[in-house]
Task: inverse folding
């Protein structure tokens, strides 16, 4: 639960960003740092946190981490300015880093190496996939602050749970392979001090690239739904719930077809790329058109992330440090994804303004309205379009101000629908390149998987 | 299940799934869900108006005139409309293109027979004009044939366009009252000139 909670925080606030933007009176650039700061600190802090934990310098690191995460979550909820919120998010990530790598050790102690890593990896996938859904629902039903408030009791309850496990077995991860696992690999040395192994680069790079691709799927899709297609955060949350559902369905599919690990991961990358291309070319703004592409992304997510994580972590020592590398790779991927995709779609959104304005002008000029009503509509729209530079404007208030004869009302309402359709078309077009860039990240990940690797000699 | 078949099944399933999703999207218009592209301003398109009388005539003339000007300037009608509405500065080339466009619109409407005879517009014009009651009564009493013989719509409109200070008109787009005043003055002057010319020709 703690792992899912921390990793869900990576994208949990995505759907709350417009509300945070308004309430904390900040800019789009600054509000993006609510996401970036958490992922950046988690990416940079995961390995040092794991080293701290492994060397036993901080007794009860995981419990402290969870407590820190809980406290920082509460601080996020009461943040009165964007600077405070970003600082609290950084602290949350520091606590989260300690908690996540600590939880891996606790899970291995509770189960065994194989199952503990599998549960830890699966919890991460569930958290990543459900984050936007849960955050959107909380924002719609209560407020953006509730996203953070609700995390506090869960995290607080996890502190004594972590301490109980720690009391039973001291955290000493610098022991031999298979320690506590009962599943030693054949030919591997038994318990005893071992030299730290280098991180497995290939699965970590694949994880980073896939995380960048998934950022497009989760972050950009919710932005498109809320900002581009004017859907409420709740509706957007329900829509993106397809991803976690499909991710869960990937398990039975893999068990049924029993592919090799490489094939499973390669197929997952391909499905994510295909899903992102599908999201780039919806035939309309009907939410139904996002379902099948999202299902592909979800299936891909379910086939790849936990497999890659397990491969990078399992039977490697120090285990916590390798777990730190996977967390670092994943969240560095999210940061890279945000850093690459955000400017692309922001610039495309800016570029979309001219064609959108021309389309709107064409519809107003040719509208079946009296000339004076066209002038009233044009004047109202002029204000709405001028005031929303760089964002998709809401034409509703402008049309509310237009006064026309009752006989013209139906034509004005039809014009408003047509203009909204043009804005949705422009927004969809503006997001296309970013989704395709996301698909490019997934294809790069596929390339990393299928390229023949250097054989290790011992 | 053999190892080879097992290895091939999931990739095949994924290929089928991705192809099915993308083909469905494309066959239903995926990739073309974009904002309406304004047509080439030089392409003739039908221009209609919901309004009757002078308002309808003015709207059709302006739409045709702007399209013609946009064609001359090599931009879309919509781009020119936005430029004129949003830009603080109006360039000479735009003013000239607009004037020529409006004149061309008058000729086009005259050619295709969509210009109404002057008699159809007189009553509405008199309603809007502040004329001496006796003069107004006298004009209303004139038979349509006399009015149409005295005033040719295309001639009045051409003179109106030539009379108009297009630059100043564009500067007043946000002020409908000033706009009306300017247009009304130009029309009055055009009617007067047209009548005087007619009288000169009679003499």
Result:
């Amino acid at each position: 639960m703690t792992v899912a909670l921390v990793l869900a925080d990576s994208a949990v606030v995505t759907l709350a960003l417009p509300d945070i933007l308004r309430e904390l009176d900040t800019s789009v650039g600054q509000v993006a740092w609510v996401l970036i700061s958490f992922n950046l600190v988690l990416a940079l802090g995961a390995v040092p946190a794991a080293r701290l934990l492994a060397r036993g310098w901080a007794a009860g690191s995981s419990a402290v981490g969870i407590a820190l995460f809980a406290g920082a979550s509460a601080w996020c909820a009461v943040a009165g300015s964007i600077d405070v919120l970003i600082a609290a998010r950084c602290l949350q990530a520091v606590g989260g880093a300690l908690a996540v790598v600590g939880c891996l050790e606790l899970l291995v102690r509770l189960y065994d190496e194989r199952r503990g890593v599998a549960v830890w990896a699966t919890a991460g996938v569930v958290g990543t996939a459900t984050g936007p859904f849960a955050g959107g629902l909380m924002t719609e039903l209560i407020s953006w602050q509730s996203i953070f408030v609700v995390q506090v009791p869960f995290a607080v309850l996890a502190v004594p749970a972590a301490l109980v496990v720690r009391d039973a077995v001291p955290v000493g991860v610098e022991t031999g392979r298979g320690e506590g696992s009962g599943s030693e690999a054949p030919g591997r040395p038994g318990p005893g001090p071992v030299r730290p192994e280098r991180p497995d680069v290939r699965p970590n790079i694949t994880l980073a690239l896939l995380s960048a691709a998934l950022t497009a799927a989760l972050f950009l899709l919710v932005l498109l739904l809320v900002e581009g297609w004017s859907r409420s955060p709740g509706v957007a949350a329900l829509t993106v719930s397809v991803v976690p559902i499909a991710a869960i369905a990937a398990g039975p599919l893999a068990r049924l077809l029993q592919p090799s690990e490489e094939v499973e991961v390669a197929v997952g990358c391909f499905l994510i790329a295909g899903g992102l291309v599908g999201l780039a070319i919806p035939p309309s703004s009907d939410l139904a058109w996002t379902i099948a592409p999202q299902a592909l992304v979800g299936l891909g997510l379910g086939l790849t992330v936990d497999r890659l994580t397990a491969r990078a972590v399992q039977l490697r020592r120090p285990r916590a440090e390798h777990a730190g590398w996977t967390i670092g790779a994943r969240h560095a991927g999210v940061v890279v994804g945000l850093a690459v995709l955000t400017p692309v779609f922001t610039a495309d959104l800016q570029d979309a303004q001219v064609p959108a304005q021309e389309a709107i002008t064409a519809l107003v000029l040719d509208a079946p309205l009296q000339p004076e009503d066209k002038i009233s509509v044009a004047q109202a729209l002029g204000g709405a379009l001028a005031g929303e530079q760089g964002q998709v404007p809401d034409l509703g208030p402008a049309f509310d101000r237009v006064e026309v004869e009752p006989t013209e009302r139906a034509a004005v309402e039809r014009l408003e629908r047509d203009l909204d359709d043009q804005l949705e078309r422009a927004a969809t077009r503006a997001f296309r390149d970013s989704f395709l860039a996301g698909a490019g990240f997934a294809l790069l990940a596929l390339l990393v998987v299928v390229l023949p690797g250097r054989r290790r000699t011992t | 299940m053999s190892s080879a078949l097992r290895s091939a099944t999931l990739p095949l399933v994924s290929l089928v799934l991705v192809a099915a999703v993308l083909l469905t999207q494309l066959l239903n218009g995926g990739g073309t869900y974009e904002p309406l592209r304004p047509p080439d301003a030089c392409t003739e398109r039908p221009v209609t108006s919901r309004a009757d009388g002078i308002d309808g005539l003015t709207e059709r003339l302006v739409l045709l005139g702007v399209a013609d000007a946009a064609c001359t300037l090599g931009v879309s009608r919509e781009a020119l409309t936005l430029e004129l509405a949003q830009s603080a500065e109006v360039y000479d080339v735009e003013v000239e293109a607009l004037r020529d466009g409006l004149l061309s619109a008058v000729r086009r409407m005259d050619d295709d027979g969509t210009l109404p005879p002057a008699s159809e517009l007189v009553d509405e014009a008199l309603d809007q004009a502040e004329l001496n009651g006796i003069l107004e009564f006298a004009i209303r009493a004139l038979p349509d044939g006399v009015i149409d013989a005295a005033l040719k719509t295309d001639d009045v409109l051409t003179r109106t366009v030539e009379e108009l200070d297009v630059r100043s008109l564009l500067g007043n787009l946000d002020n409908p009252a000033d706009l009306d005043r300017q247009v009304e003055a130009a029309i009055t002057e055009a009617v007067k000139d047209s009548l005087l010319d007619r009288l000169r020709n009679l003499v």
